[in-house]
Design goal:
The protein has 252 residues and is mainly β. It has three helices and 13 strands; from the N terminus they run H-H-E-E-E-H-E-E-E-E-E-E-E-E-E-E. Strands 1-2-3-5-6-9-10-13 form an eight-stranded antiparallel barrel. Strands 4-7-8-11-12 form a five-stranded antiparallel β-sheet, covered by helices on one side. The relative contact order is 0.21.
Length: 252
């Protein structure tokens, strides 16, 4: 993911340099939007909120998510003078914080040290909605957006192991759900074809993960030994994130 983000940043800088070299004349009609619409690319941090960010093992709705990265591809098509129909594709990756789980296991089973395999929340999908643009002074245009659509949330298998070969495994999870997004931001023209953009977005969804398999291989103390057990569970995960995005857009 880091390599992809770095490539997108380099590509963005190249496009911006081309845009600056273009004709910098800008009149109100072309500063606000193109004759038809625009395409845009944005990137920035995705910050989990609420239960999604909670790492309290006693909270059944804890998402254990940490701050990650979000990439968005957007298109806008002129509907009215100040209103665009907006379409978005997005991808967010957030690492999974299992420190509270491993600490609790170390307390429950004295003398053990626990480690977990790398794990991330992968969140992606598409949305559609409306964008209202309002031109302020000095060519800056404010953008206010509401969109809704479908989100796919997935997380790979988790394997927690100890220094004495104990193991807990949780199967891969994936679910689709309805999602909505609220955004406030704006864009500033570098020329007749290119704008720089920035916005603050809030995204929220509540997917349900069903039939999640967990396998436990843990010690017993009376009598001493190791027991293997399994369980299946389902739960609803509240996912909410803030993202601060910067990028560029090409008008057409």
């Amino acid at each position: 993911m880091k390599k992809k983000i770095f490539t997108l940043i380099i590509f963005s800088l190249f496009i911006l340099s081309v845009g600056i070299a273009q004709d910098k004349s800008c009149i109100k009609s072309t500063c606000l939007k193109g004759d038809v619409g625009y395409f845009s690319l944005s990137i920035g941090p995705s910050i989990p909120m609420g239960n999604f960010a909670d790492n309290n093992i006693k909270n059944a709705n804890s998402g254990f998510a940490k701050t990650g990265s979000k990439v968005g591809l957007n298109a806008g098509f002129k509907v009215l003078e100040n209103i665009n129909l907006g379409v978005s594709l997005y991808y967010s990756v957030n690492s999974y914080d299992v420190s509270s789980l491993t600490q609790k296991l170390a307390t429950d089973y004295p003398g053990t040290t626990w480690n977990t395999s790398g794990r991330n929340w992968d969140i992606y999908g598409g949305m559609i909605g409306f964008i209202y643009s309002y031109p302020f002074k000095n060519k800056f245009v404010g953008d206010f957006k509401f969109q809704s659509g479908v989100m796919q949330s997935s997380i790979p298998e988790m394997v927690v192991t100890s220094n004495n070969n104990l193991k807990i495994t949780e199967a891969k999870k994936s679910a689709s759900s309805f999602v909505y997004l609220l955004s406030i931001g704006g864009h500033y023209p570098l020329g007749r074809l290119f704008d720089v953009t920035g916005n603050l977005e809030y995204l929220s969804s509540s997917p349900t993960f069903s039939n999640i398999s967990r396998v436990y291989n843990v010690p017993t103390f009376n009598p001493p030994g190791i027991v293997t057990s399994s369980s299946t569970t389902s739960y609803n995960q509240n996912i909410s994130m803030l993202s601060l995005n910067f990028g560029f857009r090409v008008k057409f």
